[in-house]
Amino acid sequence: MSGMEKERFFVGNWQLADAGLPLGVNSSSGADQLPNSFVNLGWEHAMRQNSHAHIESALSSLVSSPSFNAPAGNDSVVIRELIGRLGSICNSGDASPSSRYHSPRASYYSTPLNSPPKLNISGADHQQQGMLVNPTADAQFELFAESAASKLGFAEAGKLSRVSSSQSLAAPSGKEVTVSDAVMEMPKFGRGRVSKWPPPEASSASGKLPAVVAENNGRKRKAAPKGKGKASPSSSLAMDPPPKEGNPDSKRRKQAEASAADRSPTVSKPKTEQNSSDDGQKPTENDNANPPEPPKDYIHVRARRGQATDGHSLAERVRREKISERMKLLQDLVPGCNKVTGKAVMLDEIINYIQSLQRQVEFLSMKLATLNPQLEFNMVCLLPKDMHQADVPLPQQVFPLDTATSPFSFAQQSLKIAETNRFNTHAAKNQLDSSIQLPPIVGLTDATNYLGNSDKDDLWYVIQTGFARSQEAPFSPQTLRAE
Amino acid sequence: MGVIDIMDAKGTSSLGNPNPNILTPHPSKSSVAIRFLRVLSLVRHTASSSPSSRACRIRRAACSCMAYSAGPRRAWSRALLRKLVRRRRKPPRRDLPRPAAIIRRRRPVGGDRLEVALRRVVPGGAGMEYCRLLEEAADYVKCLVMQVRLMQSIVDFESHVHSVNKRSEIDPGDRN
After folding, report:
1. Chains A, B: CB contacts under 8 A, how many?
2. Which of residues 346-365 of A touch B (CB under 8 A)?
3. In A, which residues are within 8 Å of B22 by CB distance?
4. A226, A336, B39, B140: which is deepest, by most CB within 10 A?
């Protein structure tokens, strides 16, 4: 089948297809009663390839055709049709079922909702039709259809058709890859969209379809760079040159945060439009912190409007966005940075803040150092009191210190105190700013003073083990004896 | 002072903060508080009586507490600990895992004055990419704030206790 032939199919379908009408009415492919010549085209290509291929082409064709002249009001119906067709394509190996399902589905779809579609509806629909539903594929299709449908009604039909035609024309080798990519990406794409369907803005909706389609385009281009040449000649409309399109598409789409919420979706540049609208629709999805990671290791990036779309610029843009995101985090942390705009000034503020914090730590440590001796001195006489406090029935660990020498007993006491200490600090952790039970700590310090100042490591180890494990009791006598 | 060695050995075991997010929510203040209080108590009975050296130790202890609560996943905590350990001129008992920053995908360029300054301020900031640097800086700031608040509260409490003790010294028998 020649490209021009397919083009004619597309054109014919556009002219005839209305939102409410089943698209298959216009099908001129004689082979089957396919409601959709797009589907048919996909069949012809994909019959030789795996099922994904024709799914993808069918998807693109389905997506493109209704978008051409589907007014916003009939979106839901068209979407249902799409979903139904997708399901039919997925499940049935031949084209006839699609036609079979088409009319009943049309009527079925008309009844439910303009409310956000439940995928179950389509799924149930499929099941009602008795189709063997491959759940994953079906879900994928539904998601894709949903996301595609969300863009309905706004895209340039012509461009879309061109794109879809080029897609169907794409080389078979590229198809599998791109189809799987598209299918895999669509769930990710659609997942974010489920809650937002129908799309809040028309602009975003319009952008998405060409985005998806062009993305498939680009991906195919990447996989099989031969078919893209056809895209440009086939498209007489004002589409961006395919190479330009392909390169940014060759990078995976990334849920760019800061990107194009401010872009205006214009018709002239479908690529940029799709990018902008796509990004405009996706800010909330991006807030999911990129949870649906692409199956490959790419970082999905979108070329923005009016910006270079080569690989380097895209990588730089990704990096810049990451940096800006981090800067925002820092801005929230550092007080007084909200009013400041500009990276340089903010960085300066951050550096100053960190330096001031470090200076504060140093100053406070000095203060603690000077403060301690006095406390220690004062606390010596309070040691008995602290020890009494330590005898409070807490979940203490008894250290079987056999030695009866006073230092060891003191150590035992101090360990108990330390235990109490820990308990107290634990209890007081929520009120750190309020009084902390420090006397036990000081008591411990004084107690350990009697043990001598040597081998603080061991003492520390003792304390640590006392806190950490009760089984470490054997250690304590040894370490204490070592002192 | 073997504090850092011990903490080196035990710090990671007591830490359980597997947060892959950019800004990991720190373990609660309690872990830092407990650790710091222990270290403080240990430092207090240090032989060296000069306040400056003790202040030095306390500061190092504070930094190490901070670093340990942050976890070995943060590059700045590892770098800080390495620095502290090196300063004591004792070989670390356990080799901390080499940070991923060693794998330098991008050579840090010292062109931007601010970036260079930030690298100097944040421990371990020399070998990181810019993105990573910002991440670590945010985490470091959070830790620093927590540490400062903790130390401030300790100081306040101790000064309060000190005043109470002073009062109680007048009446040794009367205590609470």
Report:
1. 208
2. 347-348, 350-351, 353-355, 357-358, 360-362, 364-365
3. 325-326, 329
4. B140
- Report the C-alpha gap between A348 and B123 in whole angstroms: 17
Nearest 10 degrees: Cα torsion A463, A467, A471, A473:
30
| Contact between B131 and A319 using a beta-carbon 8 Å cutoff | yes
Q: How many residues does chain B have?
A: 176
Beta strands in A192-249 (DSSP E): none
Question: What DSSP string runs through A350-413?
Answer: HHHHHHHHHHHHHHHHHHHHHHHHHHHHHHHTTHHHHHHHHTS--S---------SHHHHHHHH
Other beta carbons less than 10 A from residue B40's beta carbon: 25
How far are the Cα atoms of A31, A217, A263 from residue A355, in angstroms, in the given order? 76, 52, 40
Give residues 37 to 56 of B whose Cβ lies within 8 Å of A: 37-38, 40-47, 49, 51-52, 54-56
Nearest by CB to residue A444, choosing from B41, B140, B175, is: B41
From chain A, pick out residues whose CB is under 8 angstroms from the CB of B173: none
Inter-helix orientation angle A343-380/A311-333, to 10°: 40
- Residue A354 has its nearest CB partner, among B46, B141, B157, at B141
Chain B neighbors of A463, CB-CB under 8 A: 38, 42
Tracing tokens 């396919």 back to the chain, one arrives at A34
Calpha distance B64→B82 (Å, rounded)? 10
Q: What is the pLDDT of residues A382-441, one digit of tens each?
A: 444 444 444 444 444 444 434 444 444 444 444 444 444 444 444 444 444 444 444 444
CB contact under 8 A, B29 and A418: no
- Taking only the tens place, the pLDDT of each residue in A167-198 is 444 444 444 444 444 444 444 444 444 444 44
CA distances, A290 to each of A174, A192, A194, A250, B131 (Å): 27, 10, 16, 19, 17
pTM above 0.80, yes or no: no
Quick check: A211 and A147 in contact, CB under 8 A?
A: no
Q: Sort out which chain B residues have CB atoms less than 8 A from A328's CB and list them.
A: none
Pair B76, B121: CB distance under 8 Å: no
Q: HSE, CB side, 13 Å, CA atoms: give it for residue A216.
A: 39
Token readout for B96 is 């901390």
By Cβ distance, the residue of A333, A364, A373 closest to B155 is A364
Residue A311 contacts residue A252 (beta carbons within 8 Å):
no
Q: Residue A240: pLDDT above 50? A: no
What the block records as the tokens of B161 is 């206790």
